[in-house]
Amino acid sequence: MTQETAIFAGGCFWCTEAVFQSLAGVERVESGYIGGHVADPTYKQVCGGDTGHAEAIRITFDPAVIGYDDLLDVHFATHDPTALNRQGNDVGTQYRSALFPLNAAQGDAARAAIERAQSDWPAPIVTTIEPVADWYPAEDYHQSYWDGEGQRNPYCMAVIPPKLAKLRKGFADRLRAE
Fold first, then answer.
1. The domain containing residue 43 runs over which residues?
2. Residue 12 annotated as catalytic
């Protein structure tokens, strides 16, 4: 089995992680930090907004089951790519909408996905395409958060179920078998 990697930022990583873990062909989703200027940042540092990092997810997937283009389409359908440096009540550059292509083909696909997605949004998409940078995994308690603490967290209960509903509505054929 061949594996590829994608790195996306779309607000709170707890929320984006829950979406992508539901997709067939996604082998692993890791929450972490990327795009900043501080080595080994902590959650507290990133939340402070001064490190330049985005809360992001690193997706390991089987391209024979789900392609990078499909992942991009899910990304644009399940967060607001028109909100600059915010998702809902989360405000700051750490919550920006960004793509971190790992090669030229992913960069081309990212630009094409932005063009495809623009017709679905009434405002301009502000998602940035940023150079790949050092990846820092988030602390252990952030990993698979929805499956653990998230379903007891009022914030997650307000934000994640609507994202999962959008996923089920628009991408039912891409969901992992229960």
1. 4-174
2. yes
